[in-house]
Amino acid sequence: MRSRIVAGLVAAALAAVPAFAAAAAQAAAGPAAAAGRTALTWYGHSTFVLETPGGTVLVLDAWFKNPKSPDKDAAAKLEKVDYLLLSHGHSDHVGDAVALAQRTGAKLVGSSDLGRALQRMGFPEKQSTFETTGNVGGVIQAGDATVIMVPAVHSSDVNDANAHLGGGNPVGFVIRVKGGPTLYFTGDTDVTQDMKLIPERYGRIDYMLACIGGHFTMDPAGAALAASWVKPRTVIPMHYGTFPVLTGTPKELEAALHGRAKVLVLEPGKRTTL
Fold first, then answer.
1. pLDDT tens, residue by residue, 187-206
2. Which residues pair with 211 in a beta bridge?
């Protein structure tokens, strides 16, 4: 009798092992993979990691060493990056891009001009081809996300200790996630009438990632005007507080919006499920 009981307990324990292992693996994969949802992590300034339900990892404007980042070594810790979405060539937006591409094999999504400039800085040529680079209006398939390059009003040069190169025209990105939200990443820009065409051409925007710091880009009032044209459900502020001249704040944005959209202020380094 005792032997049968022991045998039953052992069998039950062994049967539970696969389920436990599956649960542990799911937990280790993180909220996005576990729930089949899209996840977004802000690392300060304009740097984001976007994880799709299908497991694609996109990094936007890779500068993880910015003053607001909680982990200056985060770029070296990312185990997987599939695509690097780079809006323009300034160092505060591409600072970690070359090293990330070399280590992870990530492909560049951005303007072809920027791609050529970054290749001279060491970005692998085979990861910066016409397959994933283009120009405004270009549609790029990035795993289970579709990325559309849209206009931005800014400048875009690429610099290091040895060279000063043109980076082409700056861009923003509309990102449609299969089975998830549609995001509009403005890039560095002022308000432009082109923004009125975003919802007309690309449909409802769920999340608008908008620069609000001013001085080099839109301030909160400008971002609120842009949001009134884009009509997103939620605005996520970025590109503020990194340097003393970037004085715009999320509270000012919220006041300027007058309830036209929600404001979601992300905590740097904290993954948020969208």
1. 989 999 999 999 999 999 99
2. 238
What long-range pairs does 259-263 form, CB within 8 A, spacing at least 24? 260/224, 260/227, 260/228, 260/231, 261/208, 261/227, 261/231, 261/232, 261/233, 261/234, 261/235, 262/233, 262/234, 262/235, 263/234, 263/235, 263/236, 263/237
**Contact between 222 and 190 (Cβ < 8 Å):** yes
User: CA 104, 110, 113, 116: dihedral to nearest 10 degrees?
Assistant: 10
Topology adopted by domain 33-268: Metallo-beta-lactamase; Chain A (3.60.15)
Cα separation, 84 vs 81, whole angstroms: 7
Task: For residue 21, give both structure tokens.
Answer: 């292992």
Domain residue spans of the chain: 33-268
How many Cβ atoms sit within 10 Å of the Cβ of residue 20? Answer: 10
DSSP string, 105-167: -PEEEEEHHHHHHHHHTT--GGGSSTTTEE-TT-EEEETTEEEEEEE--S--EEE-SS-EEE-
Determine how many CB atoms are found less than 10 A away from the CB of residue 1: 5
Ramachandran angles phi, psi of 195, nearest 5°: -60, -25
What is the Cα–Cα distance from 105 to 81, expressed in whole angstroms? 7
What one-letter code names the amino acid at 113? D
**pLDDT tens digit string along 169-186?**
899 999 999 999 999 999
What distance lies between CA 34 and its chain's CA centroid?
20
pTM for this predicted structure? 0.86
